[in-house]
Amino acid sequence: MPRVKLSGVNIPAKSSSSSETKFSITKFTHLWALAQFNLIPDDIEFVCSPSFSPPESKDEWFLKIRPKCRDDFTQFDYISVHLFLRKCFGKGITEIRANYAIHILDTDGDKRFSAVCSNKGGRIFKANYEGHGFKHMAPRSIILEHNQSILGPDSTLNILVEITAYGNFESKYTESSMNKLYSNTEIEQHSLLSNMNSLLNTMENADISVVTSDGKTMKCHKLLLANRSKVFEAMMLHDTNEKATESIKIADFYYSVVEAMVRFIYTDKVDDVVLAEYATQIIMIADKYDLPLLCRIAEEYIASKLLNFETAIQYYEIADFCNCEKLKLRILEFILENSNKICATSEWQKMIATGSNFYRDVFLVMINKSK
After folding, report:
1. Where is the MATH domain (predicted)?
2. 0.90 exceeded by the pTM?
């Protein structure tokens, strides 16, 4: 009988199925650029990085640095860096085992100071609990010396963390294709998603026009618009101008944003390139036309890819305006963790001058954190 090789083991070629079990390991890195390190006051006990996650995971990690940590024995000042787990996602999961390495980079990107934890099976990180790291990561005096070329432009301290997270045992079952008449590719060619993509590209039998603020027009299908959006459904059911003229005028969004919304209505997908440029407008158009899933996709992208010191206030105002409560809470937590940086931005000054609900929201977050 002919045999095939699978995962180093010979099995009969006529096997109708196979399975494989392995220990899941996730390796990822994160670079934290801490600007104006030399200006951090001595009475600041620690500074936290924004949350970061491994690819294709919602687990949240962050770094915490103590800018000045005195060694009682030598009387030298060091900086300390520790790694923390903020949240871990998964039913019943409250901790993650991981090994890690922390590096302080110089202006050439080389690892000037390094410290490694490589315990067998990893250290245990519990969500919102004590972290692990290195108390004497690097001498503070050397970090601050100009001729050491460690601090970059704007006195930025670059800290790189490399994490190896150990998960559970994962099993994969594979059914043999030897008895199948058609391959997966042949089946997918006639799937609903494939047909919807084809319909989007050709707009065959389209029966309504959508006109954007920049005067461009695209053809659509009434049935699909009404099925995905209660707002569009109301336009089609009642005696509206849109129903009478078979034309929907969207005067407050450009073609690129409207096209992204229409593409989502047909395919349930939004391109990352589009989100990177139009995330705020996509949230607003999703809110206007009652497309909650589209709004959540844009919120997730902002929280994971776009949120930083300079954009936090802008995204807070959008989240507040569109009632994106989860995004707003995430931004408020980020602002509280990085208040010394964000309060120095011009966006912060503008927002305070408008007298928004920001103070109330921050107060509520602080109360919840203290419980």
Report:
1. 27-163
2. no
